[in-house]
Design brief:
2 copies of one chain form a homodimer. With 244 residues, the first copy, chain A, is of the alpha/beta class. The first copy, chain A, contains 10 helices and 10 strands. In chain A, strands 7-6-5-9-8-10 form a 6-stranded parallel sheet, with helices on one face.
Chain lengths: 244, 244
């Protein structure tokens, strides 16, 4: 059994203020548990799970705190409409922005939709992006909807927040590709495996001060009528090209 | 003023059963209104909007039924947390699947997340896809979350539902590229502007019977750790390559 106070503490991790104070977040579902147990067991504070899941994973859970809960309690702890067997309280990863020495860095200016940020993290993970750096006014990477949409990729891709202007200013020698609606065709980029891809806010794009710091303004040519692409879709297209 | 019965009728269009019976759907927000007024004014049954929006758009609204509402009433009609000035009741587009004669057709097997389907429609619109054909068990294209995520592209891209197996069977002469996790590198495709891109369910991928009908199994190479890409991101990457 877990006390009402603990239930309340876990529910309160839905609030950014509480997450920031405590340096914790909540991850849910079987897929996330697999990623945590495999890649970051030391970050797990506690897993709350149904008996069959605990039984099936007993050998992998040796040094991890696990509390058995029933479906009613799991539903109370969960932020999902359909809770999926297990939920974990996890220590945040606390990454710092790193200078670009190799690989691709993705910088995100004022991404506001949590589903988009989660999908961006998952997409960056697929393409082996070295780090993601978000502007300070972006949605919190530990927001439950970001965590869910990242499908566990938050375990692998370092995500940090800082002033993008200052960070970019310090990276003088690398290509910086800014995604815009009217630049040169992205397929003309000749990537050499190192650089910074800069993506902007869902409706406003990149701020002018960041655009001015780019070495290239790149565009995915439009063939039809949509005014824009979803930011995660556009990022996937550009990363796939930069990784060819 | 509009009656309680009309308010209830509009709210009920949130339900698929009611949408199907009446052949109507609800579109919301300034961007959607622009698309409707410009590209499909004959489909609009009625726009409900705030006075400033009506005033600003008066010249474009000549032959369209428009009812002025206040913010309280707009909030009651809206399915959004932050209603955006106007909402329209619209006749569904009633497209039928067409044979492939030119351009790209996107077929979608059992897409279940409405945000994904909306983003797929928007992405298909950007790349000038000729039509989207969904399996009968896909999420309804007129689901409010699909409509919202499509950002108005539902006006331009014909979306229909049918048995994909039967439809594919009738398209004998065109390339059919099936997205899979272990196929040939998509960058090896030599597109000639005509063909069918086949995308599968978010967790299960394409069904075996559809995979067997493909001419090519194609894959976006993975560089990092994510188990899969979001279906809309993957579709964007493949369409961008097919449109080069």
């Amino acid at each position: 059994m877990i006390s009402k106070a603990i239930i309340k503490d876990i529910q309160n991790l839905g609030l950014k203020k509480v997450r920031d104070e405590q340096g914790l977040f909540v991850a849910e579902g079987v897929k996330w548990m697999e990623e945590l147990v495999r890649f970051a067991p030391e970050r797990i504070r506690c897993i709350y799970a149904l008996a069959p899941w605990i039984e099936a994973n007993r050998s992998a859970l040796k040094s991890i705190a696990v509390v058995e809960v029933d479906e009613i309690l799991l539903a109370r702890l969960s932020q999902l409409q359909t809770p999926n067997q297990a939920i974990a309280v996890v220590h945040q990863f606390l990454h710092e922005p790193q200078p670009v020495e190799s690989g691709l860095t993705l910088i995100l200016d004022t991404i506001q939709d949590p589903g988009n940020l989660g999908t961006l993290i998952r997409t960056a993970d697929w393409f082996g992006v070295t780090q993601i750096i978000c502007s300070p006014d972006s949605v919190d990477a530990y927001n439950p909807k970001v965590v869910q949409a990242s499908m566990g990729s938050l375990v692998r891709v370092p995500v940090s927040q800082t002033s993008l202007f200052e960070w970019l200013h310090a990276q003088s020698e690398v290509p910086k590709w800014a995604a815009v609606l009217a630049g040169k065709n992205y397929s003309e980029i000749k990537p050499n495996g190192v650089g910074v891809l800069m993506m902007g806010n869902e409706s406003k794009g990149l701020s002018k001060e960041l655009l001015d710091m780019a070495t290239d303004h790149v565009t995915i040519p439009r063939r039809g009528g949509a005014e824009s692409l979803n930011v995660a879709v556009a990022t996937g297209i550009l990363l796939s090209s930069l990784c060819r």
